[in-house]
Design brief:
The complex is a heterodimer of chains A (456) and B (261).
Chain A: H1 2-22, H2 31-39, E1 48-49, E2 54-59, H3 64-77, E3 82-84, H4 92-102, E4 108-109, E5 113-117, H5 123-129, E6 134-137, H6 145-148, H7 151-161, E7 167-171, H8 175-179, E8 187-193, E9 210-211, E10 218-226, E11 229-234, E12 246-251, E13 256-259, E14 262-265, H9 271-287, H10 291-300, E15 308-313, E16 316-323, H11 328-340, E17 345-349, E18 380-386, H12 391-401, E19 408-411, H13 416-423, E20 430-436, H14 437-453
Parallel strand pairs in A: 1-4, 2-5, 2-6, 3-5, 6-7, 7-8, 8-12, 16-20, 17-18, 17-20, 18-19
Antiparallel strand pairs in A: 9-10, 10-11, 12-13, 13-14, 15-16
Helix pairs in contact in A: 1-2, 2-4, 3-9, 3-10, 5-7
Chain B: E1 3-10, H1 21-33, E2 36-43, E3 56-59, H2 67-74, H3 78-86, E4 90-94, H4 97-101, E5 104-106, E6 112-114, E7 121-125, E8 139-147, E9 150-158, E10 160-164, E11 171-175, E12 184-185, E13 187-189, E14 192-195, H5 201-204, H6 206-219, H7 234-249
Parallel strand pairs in B: 1-2, 1-3, 3-4, 4-14, 5-7
Antiparallel strand pairs in B: 5-6, 7-10, 8-9, 8-11, 11-12, 13-14
Classes of the chains: A alpha/beta (456), B alpha/beta (261).
C-alpha cells in the first residue's frame, strides 16, 4: 500500500515538475517536493538507491552551497554520475524535489553520488529518511537568532542527527563543529593554516571569543581565519584545533593553496572559500579521488550566485559583497574581502532590518561581533551608512570602533538612486558595498537607470 | 577626570551571545562624556570579583547551554555577590543571564538548573507552538519599553519565559514580548537590573546607561549631571530611536503582537 501511495505522490510530483517548466515564473520552485510531501508522509524515505550509491549530506551555518557545489564538481570531474540539490533548496521540500527530478517513474535514483545540501535544522529529519554515508559539517556559528536562538540549539539537533553512523567530516578549526567528533570513530577533520593578523585579542581590550561546547570554558584563538574559526584551544578542557586534520596552506602569491606537498591553483582565494576547498580535499582523500581529478574539478568549478559581484556606475566600480543577515561570519568575511584591497575606497554599509521571518525587526547586533578595526588605516575615504531603519545604529557601531563621525555619512533610505547621487560627491572611484541579497536587485536596477541617464 | 567608575565585565567570552560587548564599548564613551574615568575589568571563570572596588557588574546574555557552567563558577563567590547586591551594589544583567541570577531554570528536557537565587525569578525554556511568529525555541523581535521617563528600544531574542516573584519589573513593555508577553519587562531588585533587551542596549539607548551611572554615582555620594551633550554619537542614537518607533508602529497591526501605546 505504501509503495502505491509513494508512486502516486511521485507521479504527482513529476507532473507538477513538468508544469512548472512550462508555466512562466515558477520554474525551479520546490512545489513538486512540497506537494509530494503533503501526499505522503516521509516521502523521501521511499526512494531507492543503487547498492554502490554514496550519499553525502553537507550542513552547517555558512558555506553549505559552495561546498556542495565543489563536491558535486569533484564527482563530475571524476566521471561519476551525480544527483544534487545544487540550487540551494536545502529543506524537506527542496530535497524531495531534487529526488523527484533525478528518479525514474519507479522512484529509483540512478547516481553514483547523491550530494545533498541540508539545512542544519532539517538534518535530524533527513538522516531518519535517507541514511547518509558521509556528513560534512562546515561550521556551527551564530546565525539567524530569530529562528535558532543560539548555536547550542543547532548543536543539539546535529548531535541527534550524527548518531546515524555516517562518517563525519568536520571543521577542525571551529569548536562547535569539531566537538561533534568527540567519541566518534568514523570521523576526520579539515583545517586552513593561518597566522595572526595584528587584529587579535591582545590588540583590542573589547575583543571577546566564544564558549567551549564541551566544558563551557573560554575558547582562545591563536589566530582567527574567519569569525570564531581558526587555531584555538579551550581554557577548561583539552578541546583544540585538530592537529591530525587535512590542512591546507593558502598561497596568496600564486593564487592557490598547498596540501601535502602539492600546489593547487584556484579562482577564489578568500578564506571562506579556502575552508570549502579544505573540506573538499578531505572528502576527496576519504573517497579516494586522484589528485589530477581534484585540480581539474577546481578549474571547472564556478560559483552559482556570487557573494562578490562587480558593477560599474559611471566611473565608479561598485564591489558588491553579499552578507547573510544576523550571521556575523558573513559580515566579517565581507569586511575581510574589502580590507584586503589596500587602495583608496568608499565603504557603504547597507545593513537593514531583518526580514527573514515575521515579525521583521531591527536587529543589527551581529555587527558588534565583527571586527571593524580592519578598516582603520585601510585607505577608506568615506563610510556611508544607509537603510530605512538601522543606518544610525551602524554609524554608532563604526564610531564605537574609533571611526571619526566626520568620516561617516548617514543616508536614512534604502533607495540606491540616492546612494549613487551621494557617491558622485567623491572623487574616489572604488566602492565596497556590504549588503544583503535582496539589495542586489535594487542596486542593479538603480545602476541601470543611472547609466541610461548618463547615456552609457 | 577625578570621578572614577569601576566596572566588572563578567565572563565576556561566554556571555556575549548577541554582540553584548557593544554595551562595554558604549559605556566607556558615555562615561567619558559624563566626565567619568571608566575602568573596565574583564573576568573569566576562576577569577574573583573585587566587590569592594566595583561600582557596576555587567553580565551579557549567554547561551542556555552555558548557564549550568556560569552558575557553577558563580557559586564560588555567590555569598559575596549577594552581599554586594544587598548593600546596594549595581548589576546590569542581560537576557538569559537572569537564569543564572534567578532561582531556577526549567528546561524542556525536564532538567532543572538552580541559579544562585539572588533574584526572585524563575525561568522556563521556551516551547511555544501556538503563538504566531515564533519558532518553538525562540521569539525574536524588537522590544520597546519605558523606564522612568525614557523610551528604550532594542532587540529581544527570547529563549525563556521569566516569572517574577518578589521583585519589581524593570520597565513596562510598550511593544514586544518582555518577560512573558504580559507587559512587564525585566526585573529590578535593589540595584540589580535585569533586562531582556539583548545586544548593544547602551549603544542604542545611551540615556539608559547615563541614568544608571548617575544613580550609582549618587549612591557613592557623588553628584553627577546626566548631560549627554558631549556624547558624540548622541545624535545618531536620537535619530535611530525615531526611525525604530516608526518601524515598530507599522507592526502594531500584526495579530498576536502585544503593544501598549
Amino acid at each position: 500500500m505504501k509503495r502505491v501511495q509513494f508512486l502516486f505522490a511521485l507521479l504527482v510530483g513529476k507532473i507538477i515538475m513538468g508544469l512548472t517548466k512550462i508555466i512562466p515564473g515558477v520554474s525551479g520552485t520546490t512545489w513538486p517536493g512540497g506537494i509530494a510531501n503533503i501526499l505522503m508522509k516521509n516521502f523521501p524515505k521511499y526512494f531507492k538507491f543503487g547498492d554502490n550509491t554514496r550519499i553525502v549530506m553537507v550542513t552547517g551555518t555558512s558555506g553549505k552551497t559552495t561546498t556542495t557545489g565543489m563536491l558535486s564538481q569533484l564527482i563530475k570531474s571524476w566521471g561519476k554520475s551525480i544527483c544534487t540539490n545544487d540550487i540551494g533548496a536545502n529543506m524537506d521540500r527542496g530535497i524531495a524535489t531534487t529526488l523527484i527530478r533525478h528518479s525514474s517513474m519507479g522512484g529509483k535514483v540512478k547516481a553514483d553520488y547523491i550530494i545533498l545540501e541540508v539545512d542544519e535544522r532539517y538534518l535530524p529529519i533527513m538522516t531518519k529518511l535517507i541514511a547518509p554515508d558521509v556528513i560534512l559539517v562546515t561550521n556551527v556559528l551564530k546565525d539567524q537568532s530569530q529562528r535558532n536562538g543560539e548555536p547550542g540549539v543547532i548543536m543539539t539537533k546535529l548531535k541527534n542527527a550524527i548518531e546515524c553512523g555516517a562518517h563525519l567530516i568536520l571543521n577542525g578549526d571551529e569548536p562547535n563543529s569539531g566537538s561533534l567528533g568527540f567519541g566518534k570513530e568514523k570521523v576526520s577533520y579539515y583545517r586552513v593554516k593561518g597566522e595572526a593578523d595584528g587584529y587579535d585579542i591582545s590588540s583590542n581590550p573589547m575583543a571577546v571569543s566564544c564558549s567551549c561546547p564541551v566544558c563551557g570554558g573560554s575558547i582562545s584563538f591563536e589566530y582567527e581565519n574567519l569569525f570564531n574559526i581558526g587555531k584555538y584551544s579551550c581554557s577548561g578542557c583539552d578541546m583544540s584545533s585538530k592537529e591530525d586534520a587535512t590542512t591546507i596552506s593558502i598561497d596568496y602569491e600564486n593564487n592557490g593553496f598547498d596540501w601535502d606537498g602539492t600546489s593547487f591553483n584556484v579562482k577564489y582565494i578568500s578564506k571562506d572559500f579556502m575552508y570549502c576547498y579544505s573540506s573538499m580535499m578531505e572528502f576527496a582523500r576519504h573517497e579516494g579521488v586522484p589528485a589530477e581529478v581534484i585540480q581539474k574539478s577546481i578549474d571547472e568549478f564556478k560559483i552559482q550566485s556570487g557573494r562578490v559581484e562587480q558593477m560599474k556606475a559611471g566611473a565608479k566600480t561598485i564591489n558588491y559583497l553579499r552578507i547573510k543577515q544576523e550571521t556575523p561570519v558573513t559580515l566579517q568575511s565581507a569586511i575581510d574581502v574589502a580590507t584586503a584591497d589596500k587602495s583608496e575606497k568608499i565603504v557603504v554599509l547597507d545593513l537593514s532590518e531583518i526580514v527573514d521571518f515575521n515579525p521583521r525587526y531591527t536587529g543589527m547586533y551581529y555587527a558588534y561581533d565583527c571586527n571593524f578595526r580592519k578598516f582603520m588605516d585601510n585607505n577608506v575615504v568615506k563610510y556611508i551608512c544607509m537603510s530605512k531603519t538601522v543606518c544610525y545604529d551602524v554609524a554608532t557601531r563604526l564610531y564605537l570602533e574609533g571611526i571619526a563621525p566626520g568620516d561617516i555619512t548617514v543616508i536614512p533610505t534604502d533607495n540606491y538612486d540616492l546612494l549613487l547621487e551621494e557617491l558622485e560627491k567623491y572623487d574616489c572611484n572604488t566602492v565596497y558595498l556590504l549588503t544583503w541579497m535582496h539589495s542586489y536587485y535594487s542596486c542593479l536596477s538603480s545602476i541601470e537607470k543611472y547609466q541610461k541617464k548618463a547615456g552609457e | 577626570m577625578s570621578k572614577i567608575i569601576n566596572i566588572a565585565w563578567v565572563y565576556p567570552d561566554i556571555l556575549n551571545l548577541h554582540g553584548d560587548r557593544g554595551n562595554m564599548m558604549a559605556i566607556a564613551k558615555i562615561a567619558e562624556a559624563l566626565g567619568l574615568e571608566c575602568n573596565i575589568n574583564k573576568l573569566s571563570y576562576g577569577e574573583d570579583i573585587d566587590f569592594e572596588n566595583t561600582d557596576l557588574i555587567f553580565m551579557g546574555a549567554g547561551q542556555i547551554r552555558d548557564m549550568q557552567h556560569v552558575v557553577r563558577d558563580m557559586r564560588r563567590y555567590a555569598d559575596g555577590f549577594k552581599s554586594y547586591v544587598e548593600a546596594g551594589g549595581y548589576v546590569l544583567a542581560i537576557g538569559s543571564t537572569g537564569c543564572a541570577l534567578g532561582k531556577t531554570l526549567s528546561l524542556e528536557s525536564g532538567e532543572t538548573i538552580e541559579g544562585i537565587g539572588i533574584l526572585d525569578i524563575t525561568a522556563r525554556e521556551l516551547n511555544r507552538t501556538k503563538m504566531p511568529y515564533v519558532t518553538k525555541e525562540v521569539y525574536g523581535d524588537d522590544i520597546w519599553w519605558s523606564y522612568k521617563d525614557m523610551d528604550i528600544i532594542g532587540c529581544q531574542i527570547q529563549r525563556v519565559d521569566y516569572t517574577l516573584g518578589n521583585v519589581e519589573p524593570l520597565g513596562k513593555v510598550v511593544y514586544g514580548y518582555g518577560n512573558n508577553l504580559q507587559g512587564e519587562e525585566g526585573a529590578r531588585y535593589k540595584n540589580l537590573l535585569l533586562t531582556n533587551t539583548v545586544g548593544p542596549l547602551l549603544a542604542s539607548n545611551p540615556w539608559f546607561g547615563a541614568d544608571v551611572m548617575a544613580e550609582l554615582m549618587v549612591a557613592k555620594g557623588e553628584k553627577l549631571s546626566v548631560d549627554l551633550d558631549k556624547l558624540e554619537y548622541l545624535g545618531y542614537a536620537k535619530e535611530s530611536i525615531e526611525l525604530k518607533k516608526k518601524f515598530i508602529k507599522d507592526k502594531f497591526k500584526l495579530p498576536g503582537i502585544i503593544h501598549n501605546l
